[in-house]
Structure formats: structure tokens, C-alpha cells
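Appendix B. Raw example, untouched.
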Amino acid sequence: MKILTANKLQWFFMALAGVGLCLMLVFMFVGGNQFFDYRALQRQNSAITVENEALRQKNLETSRLVDRLKNDMSYIEHVAREELGMVKKGEVVYTFGRQGKGR
């Protein structure tokens, strides 16, 4: 039985490590595309996280608006005047017609 010298033993383990590394790379990139699937899922997760944060902000704004519409009388009056065209009792509203072509 031959005894391996230190240099041959070192070379053997380096070659074994190289083969193992090559096999690992092959499985990572070729074996069912798990690496690329993982990266795609990471991108999808990031996009969903950004969308969730935007929805959280929109929900907060909507919640504040609902609270103002329930409790803030001056804001309710503002909305009634601006969006619904309502006026207070006793106010006089003047409307002016537009001049069209030919007038």
C-alpha cells in the first residue's frame, strides 16, 4: 500500500474541492433554475412590499379624510360648497353665462 505524500494529498483535496464546486455551480444554475426562480421571487417580493406601503399610505389618508368628514364641520361645509355646489341659507348666488362664438 502506497502512502500519499503531503503534496499529493493536498493536490487530491484541491481537486476534490474543485469538482465539488463545479457540481454545486451546475446544480445551482442548471438544476431546475432554482437560482433564477429565487431571484425572480425576490424581485416580486420587493414589488409587492412597495405596493403594500403605497396602499398603507392611501388607507391612512382615506382614514383621515373619513374622520374629518365625520367630525370637522368646517371641512364638511367646504366639501358641500366646493364639490356639491351648496350655499348657505340667505346667500345670493350669481351665475354668469359664457359668451359663445358669434355673440
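End of appendix B.
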